[in-house]
Amino acid sequence: MCIFCKIIAGEIPANIEYQDDNFIVIKDIAPTAPVHLLIIPKKHLSNIMEIDSTLAGNLFTKIKDIAAQFGVQEKGFRLVINTGDDGGQTVGHLHIHLLGGRALSWPAG
Ligand code: 5GP
Ligand code: ZN
Predict the structure, then answer these.
(1) What CA–CA distance (Å, rounded) separates 1 from 23?
(2) Residues 6+ apart with CB under 8 A from 57
(3) Strand extents, DSSP E, the chain
(4) Which of 6, 78, 87, 94 could disulfide-pair with 12, CB 3.0 to 4.6 Å?
(5) How far does residue 4's CA lie from ligand 2's centre (Å)?
(6) Closest by alpha carbon to 77, among 90, 91, 65, 92?
(7) How far apart are CA 5 and CA 101, in angstroms?
């Protein structure tokens, strides 16, 4: 089982900020911004290449709710989906980084 599946199963403790039937939201263990959340589908998908339209729709709708819940909707935030080796993905379970709470520089990487 992958590390995020273990967190979802409750086998590894995590700072769970939100969860429902389809998603879990945790604080990144190594935050790079004052708000650094990981929005993780409970279903194990290796990366964004495995997503379908239903999950994609639900995911972006959930992201809007989470952004509002964490108070970053007005000043803004950044979503990051690292994919594969060149994308810098280190955990092979689809997750979206939500970064905010400070002015972020661009371009990244
Ligand atoms: P990736 O590089 O795959 O896009 O991001 C994986 C992220 O997961 C990293 O930012 C890393 O800090 C975070 N992470 C890895 N293991 C854990 C963990 O056990 N708990 C939490 N909360 N975050 C983790
Ligand atoms: Zn998994």
Answers:
(1) 17
(2) none
(3) 16-19, 23-27, 35-41, 77-80, 96-100
(4) 6
(5) 5
(6) 65
(7) 28
73 lines ligand 1 (CB under 6 A): no
Residues surrounding ion ligand 2 at CB below 5 Å: 2, 4-5, 44, 93
Residues with catalytic roles: 95
**pLDDT (tens digit per residue) in 35-73:** 999 999 999 999 999 999 999 999 999 999 999 999 999
The letter for the amino acid at 73 is: Q
The pair of three-digit structure tokens given for residue 102, joined into one six-digit string: 């400070």
CA dihedral 57, 92, 15, 97 (to 10 degrees): -50
- Sheet of 96-100: strands edge to edge? 16-19, 23-27, 35-41, 96-100, 77-80
Coil, strand or helix at 78: strand
Mean pLDDT, the chain, whole residue set: 97
Is pTM beyond 0.85? Reply is yes
